[in-house]
Amino acid sequence: MCVKESKAGKRGAQRQHSLELCTENELRSIRDVLNISSSGADNRDISDNGEAQSLKSSDIEQMREECNESSKIIEKLVENSKTFHTRTEYSQDKYLLKKEKKYFEFVQIRQPTIRLMADIFHRQDPDKIMGIRVDTLSQIISYSGISGFGNYMLYESGTNGLLPAAMLNSMGAGTEATLVHMHPGNVPQKQALLALKLPLEQQQRCISVNLYSVLREFYQGDKPEATNSADDEEKVEAVTEAEVTAEEQSEGFEPSSKKVKLDESPKFEIFLSIDTVG
């Protein structure tokens, strides 16, 4: 793949990319492609003063616009370098590797796996997967005893779907195991789970449940019954008071508004004697 800039001579401008299948020649070492065999004994006579390359920056930019293969650009750079062939072989390899990173851009398409996704997520942003590394994920799967039989429940607060994907992958396809994935929030995180592209029947055995909905159903489901029982108790008390009032009126009983005076509690006198020792 050769990278071209939309505007020549302006670094950082928007680039246009074209993807092509790599040939065996492009996958070979750049040293073998350019047939470089000579090298110097040491680098004592090399000075990094910026004058070793005879090509100007404008010439290099023009080559990047015209050349379709990055190996040709590196070949021109090597030919116009005054010090390349006097460098040691190790120094030449470093120079070629630096130019490869600058002018070569390869895209490798791979089948997603749990290990690959764990490495990518951890390298991009460890906080989004709670800092779980591959070894930690392996221990979680091992200690949990996930197999193709039984029902399992998982609660996680945000790992981009890495944990449920790892557990569902360990259960396997066409098994009897079921995973209940409990999560906070309205929508579960399933990035890693969807990236695996598991069979539909295996995906359906992962049941996502909102934890807050479960708690709300659990606590609010008992409230109406409690309210009804409280209302019934109030009604019973009201009926009892009404019956007592009716009986008192029928018997001619007049309630007294005066409070019954309680007997005064006995007073205790404490005598304190101090003996003076003469």
From TrEMBL:
<dbReference type="GO" id="GO:0030488">
    <property type="term" value="P:tRNA methylation"/>
</dbReference>
<protein>
    <recommendedName>
        <fullName>tRNA (adenine(58)-N(1))-methyltransferase non-catalytic subunit TRM6</fullName>
    </recommendedName>
</protein>
<comment type="similarity">
    <text>Belongs to the TRM6/GCD10 family.</text>
</comment>
<dbReference type="Pfam" id="PF04189">
    <property type="entry name" value="Gcd10p"/>
</dbReference>
<dbReference type="InterPro" id="IPR017423">
    <property type="entry name" value="TRM6"/>
</dbReference>
<keyword id="KW-0819">tRNA processing</keyword>
<feature type="region of interest" description="Disordered">
    <location>
        <begin position="38"/>
        <end position="60"/>
    </location>
</feature>
<keyword id="KW-0539">Nucleus</keyword>
<dbReference type="GO" id="GO:0031515">
    <property type="term" value="C:tRNA (m1A) methyltransferase complex"/>
</dbReference>
<dbReference type="GO" id="GO:0005634">
    <property type="term" value="C:nucleus"/>
</dbReference>
